[in-house]
Amino acid sequence: MANISRLYSDRAGKMRKSEIRELLKVAQDPEIISFAGGLPNPKSFPIQDLKGVVEYVLDHHGKIALQYGTTQGVEELREILAERALKEGINNVTADNIIITSGSQQALDTVGKIFLNPGDIPLVGLPTYLGGINAFRSYEANLIGIPLDQDGMNIDALEEKIKELMKDNLTPKFIYVVPTFQNPAGVVMPESRRKKLIDMANEYDLVIVEDDPYGKLHFDIPAVRPVKAFDDEGRVIYMSTFSKILSPGFRIAWTVASEELTRKMIICKQALDLCTNTFTQYIAAEFMKSGSLDLHIMKICEMYKPKRDIMMSAIENHFPDGYICNKPKGGMFAWATLPEGIDTEIMFLDALKEKVAYVHGKAFCVDGSGGRSMRLNFSYATNERIAEGIKRLGAVIDKKMKVLCQ
Ligand SMILES: Cc1ncc(COP(=O)(O)O)c(C=O)c1O
Fold first, then answer.
1. What is the pLDDT of residue 405?
2. Dist CA 330 CA 181 (whole Å)
3. For residue 167, how far is its CA from the centre of ligand 1 (angstroms)?
4. How far apart are CA 77 and CA 90, in angstroms?
5. Which residue has the least CA distance to atom 13 on ligand 1?
6. How many A from CA of 403 to the centre of ligand 1?
7. Which of 24, 100, 316, 347 has the most crowded Cβ, counting Cβ within 10 A?
8. Measured in angstroms, how far is the CA atom of residue 217 from the centroid of ligand 1?
């Protein structure tokens, strides 16, 4: 066999497979109760409703919906999204400020491509979304973590870090936040802190990347306005996705940004995939026009809230004393931190033996912290399996604690 890997670029040579993705593959065994992935519940997919929409799109837009589309995305969909963004409080948005991407993951990668030279610094949450870490690291960025508290990214710690870096003549390229039902921590940044974040970005002349896949999945609190709603200077790049509110298989997401940045993203995307799936864009547009999406989101919330509750009470019943676990008010994840001495990465193999899976906390922390934490997804498993899985996990933790006490 020819050794073609010797010809790889330096960049490709430095790319490493994601250990977590490997672990998640193991967790795909149907016998395993998986709290590991970030998957929507397949029962939530509106298969029957979509049948009619698909037929309508083929009948009315077939010749364009099955064709290549523009790189920026289907105009009708962008117009609908612009209208929604205005309703959510984001000012001055038109279809020209929106680009449709192949998932938010592509938008994150594109932002990395546009902003990051090797060694550049994005500031990210401790913990933060693993896919964001991977996207920015693929551009050889030097990610620096800012601790989260119950209200999201700790704003004082953020300012301290910015000042410290600036003293050394280093300017962070952007601040990456998942402010609503954060992945993995499940926390929400209150409006007051969102305003402070904007003030800070204005004061230090920084860009904010706001990643918001979960904002619509609120169970106990009203919708929170995006950080972008407080942005008067065009510093916030806002992204959201249809993955968690309709279907991840559609691979469609949208970014709201200045026209200038949108143009740059279009140029990047031309080299990536020419255009996002045109067919699913038309389907999503029709689904939204009929009002079905909002109804569907309500149904998802009705399905996920009891799942969250079942997980929370199972944790209360089965996790040993000394753990900390927030009760997420929406989204898809809870974040549990276990007593001193437990390493959730090592414990993962014990959990797998008991046929239950989670993602260990270190995977989400760019500084190697998070060793006692785990992310638990509550959207995917059935209610019965959530209760059973947490019971098993509790027993695994119990066993570990007993060994530690010996
Ligand atoms: C915070 C966050 N950003 C982005 C994504 C990627 O979403 P998409 O399916 O739109 O690529 C996810 C998916 O889990 C996520 O949790």
1. 79
2. 6
3. 34
4. 17
5. 38
6. 37
7. 100
8. 14
With the most atoms of ligand 1 within 8 angstroms of its CB, the residue from 18, 24, 81, 105 to mutate is: 105
Which tokens in the block code for residue 80?
């609908």
Cis peptide before 127, with omega less than 30 degrees from 0? yes
Q: What is the pLDDT of residue 13?
A: 80
Q: Within 6 Å (CB) of ligand 1, which residues are found?
A: 38, 103-105, 129, 131, 178, 183, 211, 213, 241, 243, 248, 253
Angle among Cα 146, 151, 154 to the nearest 5 degrees reads 25
Rounded alpha-carbon distances, angstroms, from residue 5 to 18, 118, 137, 347, 365: 19, 22, 21, 35, 30
* Alpha carbon separation from 38 to 24, 333, 378 (Å, rounded): 10, 8, 9
pTM of the model: 0.96
Which tens digits make up the pLDDT trace of 51-62?
Answer: 999 999 999 999
Calculate how far, in angstroms, residue 249's C-alpha sits from the geometric centre of ligand 1.
12
Q: Which residues contact 120 (CB under 8 A, 6 or more apart)?
A: 139, 141, 142, 173
The residues of the chain scoring below 50 in pLDDT are: none
According to the model, what pLDDT value does residue 19 have? 67
Count CA atoms closer than 13 A to 219's CA, side-chain side. Answer: 21
List Cα–Cα distances, 129 to 21, 112, 366, in angstroms.
13, 14, 10
What residues contact residue 396 under an 8 Å CB cut-off, 6+ apart? 347, 350, 351, 354, 356
Distance CA 387, CA 118 (A): 45
Handedness of CA 211, 215, 217, 221 (dihedral sign): positive
pLDDT tens for 204-256 read: 999 999 999 999 999 999 999 999 999 999 999 999 999 999 999 999 999 99
